[in-house]
Amino acid sequence: MNGAKEYLNPYLVGFLLGFTLLASFVILGAGLGASNAIARAAAWCGLCINAEQIMSSTYFGAWGDKPLDYYLVYMFVGIVMGGFLSALLCRRINVQIERGAAYPAGRRLILALLGGILTGFASRLARGCTSGQALTGTALLTTGGVIFLVSTFAGGYLMAYFFRRQWHD
Amino acid sequence: MIETFFGNMTLSSPAAFLSAFIIGTAFGWCLEQAGFGSSKRLAGIFYFTDMAVLKVMFSAVITAMLGLGFLLRTGIINPDSIYVPETFLWAHAVGGLIFGMGFVIGGWCPGTAVVGSVSGKFDALVFIGGAMIGSYLFNYFFDILEPLYQMENLGVSFIYEFAGMSFAQFALLLTVIAVLAFWFSELIEEKFSFAGVAARSNGLWGFSVLVLLAACINLLVGRAPSVKELIAPTVNAGVMNSVEQGLDHIEPEVFAREKLAGLKRIALVDLRSREEYDEWHIPGAVHQPLNSIVEGLNRYREFDLVVLYSNGAVHPGQAWVVLASAGFKNVYIMADGLQGFFERVLKPASLRSGFVSEEDAAEISRWRAMFLGSGMAAGAAEPVNSGIMTSP
Questions:
Q1: Nearest residue of A to residue B82 by CA position?
Q2: Are B392 and B283 in contact (CB under 8 A)?
Q3: Residue among B209, B130, B11, B162 at smallest CA distance from A111
Q4: ipTM value greater than 0.90
């Protein structure tokens, strides 16, 4: 990470992120989202493999045969762009498997996969993830958003102890 | 007044897609600048080593909340123009719990994993692959999960309502909590050394004062709805009535006949408020607020008929347009709404003006038996009164 710039002040980033969310409310009339596009990508892959099965399923089927024609998918592409440009300009692109110094890479990848499966599943159940529920919902002061935020931290702290080793240096 | 893509029902237009892309770019940039392209930094919140997640998320929430509160209270933006996610108590609680576990196990959440991936973190890419599998599993087991997914639907529900507060009052409360949490986070990071916190020059003093001030100002600005807001619904109604001419309708008699024949799969959808629905609805009707209508009615996509009703024509008209643009091809509006249904289906033959043939009378009593139960069938002469009818 030679020459990588320091991260921005968290309060300043928070303010800018809040402003982005506000712009999303004012322009789109809806908040931010990330997990929806991932689910739609899964539905799209499913359509390529077995279109009939996906189209007859209740949840993915409702998205029709063109699940990627959705504003949150375009937002997702934006996140890819914005994140890449920012990492590039601040010289923070570094191919690696991020983990504690002594932790085996394979184990870390298994945990990443397992965590991904759980969050992917949970974000469909909760109708959103950290972006769509915790950020957007809480900013709107919806009951569901606040409940999601609180139980996310509860779930995180509940499991934190058992998975601490992957970060130990 | 600003009109949003959601308010114009054009969230699926190229212009909206382009806007979403630009907003997404800003979002991704913010996440990366915050350092959320690193799972170590993200996980720090769960081990009290790095509180950046709390600081960034909480500042973002209060910034957007106060900004939105201001725009709503000054009437610059109409509340109807913003999509507010509904609350499903159990889905949000259980979903949140599993989500938090996945977050700490995987080290990422969906948005940050995207930023991590483009920063070269291979584990983030694997995490996204996992999230796709998780989404697929949710779809696969949806029929089993649906009761949990739909349980305890509070509709559009705001947390401040439970506290008996207004948006702005609760926003001030949350801002105070956030500022306390910011200072507490700094203390945690400095291992509770007050001198250490004081030595940090991160602008937290200024930021604290700024947000508290904004929260107080928010409480004081424009309480009464603006004139524009008061006029808007009627203008909208006029537009909708003209749009409405082009929409598909179903006469209440035809609906009743189809329902009685029982050959078609028919979904009946009540678009009125939850209170009105709870007071009385046509037996068999499901309640569905407008803001989540596509998701809520997804399971009826393959039905032969989806029949919408409300008191007037405005709500079904909007709902019809939304559903049609989401690809539904089976949606009909009940002509004359609930009133028409009372007059033309439920009203006993004996109370109807004009000549009613014996065949028609027999059909009417069959409809009444179907919708009201046998106890109130054929001979019952009581006028239709919402007070005495309860849904089975």
A1: A29
A2: yes
A3: B130
A4: yes
- Is residue B259 within 8 A of residue B372, CB to CB? The reply is no
* pTM listed for this prediction: 0.73
The closest alpha carbon to B330, from B302, B371, B352, belongs to: B302
Beta bridge partners of B249: B333
Q: What is the DSSP letter of B208?
A: H
CB contacts of B27 in chain A (<8 Å) are 17, 20, 32, 75, 78-79, 82, 131
Please list the pLDDT of chain B residue by residue as tens digits (392 residues): 788 898 887 888 999 999 999 999 999 999 999 999 999 999 999 999 999 999 999 999 999 999 999 998 888 888 888 999 989 999 999 999 999 999 999 999 999 999 999 999 999 999 999 999 999 999 999 999 999 998 888 888 999 989 888 889 999 999 999 999 999 999 999 888 888 888 887 889 999 999 999 999 988 885 544 333 433 444 444 445 545 555 688 888 888 888 877 777 888 999 888 888 888 888 888 888 887 888 888 888 878 889 999 876 667 888 888 888 777 888 888 888 888 888 888 888 888 877 788 888 888 888 888 887 654 433 333 333 333 333 44
Share of chain A residues as helix, strand and coil, in percent rounded to the nearest 5: 70, 0, 30
Token pair belonging to A110: 């298994």
Chain A residues with CB-CB distance to B35 below 8 A: 7
H or E element, residue B286: strand B286-287
Whether the CB-CB separation of B40 and A167 falls below 8 Å is answered with yes
| DSSP 8-state assignment for residue A96 | B
Q: Which amino acid does the sequence have at B68?
A: L
